[in-house]
TrEMBL record:
Protein name, per record: Uncharacterized protein
């Protein structure tokens, strides 16, 4: 018979808390393809902000902290590595860093052919406020105006 000691349960709990946002993000990005039916529709413009949020989550997790919603629906800091021996947090940090690297590599695969659609979404002149995508891409209004002239040339240079 196999039994798990208390220290091992702490590792399982830390892993579960670290991975929970990935479960939520997966469901969010699935959407249903119908805008307005759910909070997300699985559209391309939703992908990058969610991946960035996951990268930020892993950045905090490496420091031993995550932000979690409590029972009163208030966000609070949760310390992952409390009451663990010295070796366990080091190992967990290695695994979290490997996960961050893999996700960041995937996030970094943006090719020039994806830039115009993102540009259009991020710099939409009909938006009353900057979109999430424009904020995440660090685009301000004048940045969008400058990019709009350069994007056509950049795409032509890359043969798209």
């Amino acid at each position: 018979m196999f039994s798990i000691i208390e220290q091992q349960w702490k590792v399982v709990a830390a892993a579960q808390k670290t991975l929970q946002p990935f479960k939520v993000a997966s469901k969010q990005l699935q959407g249903d393809g119908i805008a307005g039916k759910r909070s997300t529709s699985g559209g391309f413009d939703e992908y990058f902000p969610v991946v960035k949020m996951l990268l930020d989550h892993l950045d905090l997790a490496v420091q031993g902290v995550i932000i979690e919603e409590n029972d009163d629906q208030i966000m609070e800091e949760v310390h992952l590595f409390d009451d663990m021996d010295a070796k366990t947090p080091r190992l967990l940090k290695i695994y979290i860093k490997l996960g961050w690297k893999k996700l960041n590599d995937y996030y970094g695969k943006l090719t020039p052919s994806y830039i115009p659609p993102l540009q259009e979404i991020a710099c939409s002149s009909t938006a009353s406020e900057p979109t999430t995508v424009s904020s995440d891409l660090g685009m301000e209004e004048d940045t969008c105006q400058k990019l709009s002239g350069n994007l056509g040339r950049e795409v032509q240079d890359h043969g798209s």
